[in-house]
Amino acid sequence: MRLLFLFLGLATIVLVIFFLWGDTLMTMFSQEGTITWLNQYGHWAWFAAIILLMADLLLPLPATLVMAALGYLYGPITGGLISAVGSFMSGSLGYWLCRLLGEKAALRLLGEKDYARGKKLSGNVGGWVVVLSRWLPVFPEVIACMAGLTRMPARYFHAALFCGSLPLGFTYAFVGATGVEHPVLSIVLSAGLPPLIWWIIRSAFRATIKV
User: Fold this and answer.
1) For residue 178, what is the DSSP state?
2) What is the pLDDT of residues 100-114, one digit of tens each?
3) Which residues touch 85 (CB under 8 Å, ≥6 apart)?
4) Strand, coil or helix: what is 18?
5) CA angle 183–186–188, rounded 5-degree value
6) pTM of the shown model
7) How many angstroms separate the CA atoms of 75 and 136, rounded?
8) What count of other Cβ atoms lies within 10 Å of the Cβ of residue 105?
9) What Rg do the C-alpha atoms of the chain give, in angstroms?
10) pLDDT at 88
11) What is the number of alpha carbons within 13 Å of residue 24 lying toward its C-beta?
């Protein structure tokens, strides 16, 4: 039960922060607002965007709008790459911050039974959860933190994170660069890519990625 309570607690914290500051940040970092904000950094706008995407770990920033702004500023390829890197680094930051707490801290938080259950879940379905969570609000940060806390194998986590972050970054950068009239359709179709990529990678490296 501790595992469930911790997950719900982390999700609640994120939701509370969103309800307190979400509207302000959404207004400030609309696509147009983000473009204006990034332009003030000139040649370093890409770096500022990555920091902004990493800050999504703690603040309810509209990451997808930041990615769309990157597509507008840098085009679908370069903007997509920057977006994917920012999403990947955000997930990695959450994972390592919690993993570096150490196994003793995890045991104190979860107890031996729930800690063992969390490690088992990480190995069985954790990769799929990481992949799919990148396309959802709130959950990417929580899932990354839980993966680190339950010590999901680093290579396994980062492979799954890559599969979720890459299509996400390029999809929203494409939307921002082209101003497509039906972005929902593009996003829905592209959302099918992460599970497919993960299935291929997981199958190909099952012997080398120990879970």
Assistant:
1) H
2) 887 777 777 777 777
3) 50, 169
4) helix
5) 105
6) 0.81
7) 24
8) 12
9) 17
10) 96
11) 6
| Range list of H helices, 100-134 | 103-121, 127-133
**Residue of 26, 45, 6, 31 lying closest to 137 (CA atoms):** 26
Contact 70, 59 (CB under 8 A): no
Q: Please state the rounded mean pLDDT for residues 21-27.
A: 62
Residue 156 to residue 202: CA distance in whole angstroms: 9
Q: How far is CA 76 from CA 7, 21, 44, in A?
A: 35, 30, 18
- pLDDT for the residue numbered 123: 66
Size of the chain in residues: 211
For the chain, where are the alpha helices, taking DSSP H only?
Answer: 2-28, 31-39, 45-55, 63-99, 103-121, 127-133, 139-149, 154-178, 183-191, 193-204
Mean pLDDT, residues 45-55: 93
Structure tokens at 170: 């390029």
| Cβ–Cβ < 8 Å for 89, 54 | yes
- H-helix or E-strand containing 150? none
Residues 192 and 202: their CA atoms lie apart, in Å, by: 16
Is residue 110 within 8 A of residue 2, CB to CB? The reply is yes
Which amino acid is located at 176 in the chain? G
Instruction: Report how far residue 211's alpha carbon sits from residue 200's, in angstroms, rounded to the nearest whole number.
Output: 16
